[in-house]
Amino acid sequence: MTTNTTTRTAIVTGASSGIGRATATALATAGFNVVAIARRADQLDSLTIDSAAITALPLDLTTDGAAAQAVQHTLAAFGRIDVLVNAAGYGANAPSESVPPAEWDRLFAINVNAVAHLTSAALPHLLASARDNQVADVVTISSTAGLSAEPGAAAYSSSKFAVRGLMEAWRKEYASRDIRFCTIYPGAVVTEFGKDQQFIRDWYATMKTQGAVAHPDDVARAVLFAATQPAHASVSELTLRPTRQI
Ligand code: NDP
Predict the structure, then answer these.
(1) Distance between CA 32 and CA 36 in Å, rounded?
(2) Which amino acid residue places its CA nearest to atom 21 of ligand 1?
(3) What's the topology of domain 9-240?
(4) Would you kindly state where each structural domain of the chain is located, as residue ranges?
(5) Is residue 156 annotated as a catalytic residue, yes or no?
């Protein structure tokens, strides 16, 4: 472990389902205090019933003031921020000529801007925790679509490329002040991702028949791995595909 006896506190976005939910549970099980953020309060409530170390903050991260609210809530609940996990996001797949400006804006609002706004708001407190506790962590879920752009996913792929750029810039900016930035690039993971989109549902169905899907817990273990390295070691990028995904 990286730390002294202080209980580390993590903010996890996208915690109502999928990768964020599995990550909130994994961190709480590992002894972290967790603030779990997403819009669906009922889903967050079921998470807090399972673990006393998790508190819920129902919040749309694309609204004005959301980042400040997330930080204030966490400081009021636990007094510190040691780890931020940016997992909230969604996928879209459509011919580019049919994607209206409002859809680009909606996708970038959560996949990119919410990551930028919340990380920026958390940074002063992450710096304080790094001074106090040797290290602090930001882990952001990009995608293999953020490493290799796919046709029909220009908006989604470019949003996930943008996250990579943010994280690499921050890593260089804050390395000397002991904040680690880890970008995780998952392949196909069975979650609620793309549940409203026929193309994505069909793709997952195909991947399942090939035994080529990963589980949210697999990604959660990767987050925990990054956030519990010794203070001198930084896992800055990690790609996690199902074994059978090419
Ligand atoms: P899910 O759809 O299961 O989870 C997405 C989460 O984001 C939900 O908790 C949702 O909660 C939250 N969310 C979405 N919009 C907002 C918002 N405006 N404000 C607050 N929370 C929001 O999908 P995954 O777990 O798969 O997705 C997690 C991340 O992993 C995403 O960034 C996705 O792009 C990425 N990813 C997923 C892959 C996969 O195959 N599943 C592969 C590669 C990357 P709520 O609706 O309650 O607000």
Answers:
(1) 12
(2) 38
(3) Rossmann fold (3.40.50)
(4) 9-240
(5) yes
Per residue of the chain (246 residues), give pLDDT as tens.
Answer: 444 568 999 999 999 999 999 999 999 999 999 999 999 999 999 999 988 899 999 999 999 999 999 999 999 999 999 999 999 999 988 999 999 999 999 999 999 999 999 999 999 999 999 999 899 999 999 999 999 998 999 999 999 999 999 999 999 999 999 999 999 999 999 999 989 888 889 989 999 999 999 999 999 999 999 999 999 999 999 999 999 999
Is the CB of residue 19 below 6 angstroms from any atom belonging to ligand 1? yes
Is 242 close to ligand 1, i.e. is its CB under 6 Å away? no
List Cα–Cα distances, 36 to 28, 51, 54, 59, 234, in angstroms. 10, 11, 7, 10, 24
Give the integer Cα–Cα distance in Å for 214 and 52. Answer: 28
Ligand 1 within 6 A of 241 CB? no
In angstroms, rounded to a whole number, what is the distance separating the alpha carbons of residues 145 and 63? 26
Ligand 1 pocket test: which of 11, 12, 13, 17 has the largest number of ligand atoms within 8 Å of its C-beta? Answer: 17
Tell me the whole-structure pTM to 2 decimals. Answer: 0.97
Which atom of ligand 1 has the smallest separation from the CA of 186?
43
Whether the CB of 32 sits within 6 Å of ligand 1: no
Residue type, 192: E
Span from the CA of 87 to the centroid of ligand 1 (angstroms) = 6
Give the DSSP letter string of 87-141.
---------GGG--HHHHHHHHIIIIIHHHHHHHHHHHHHHHHHHHHS-EEEEEE
Task: Dig out the tokens for 57 from the structure.
Answer: 């903050």
The one-letter code for the residue type at 121 is A
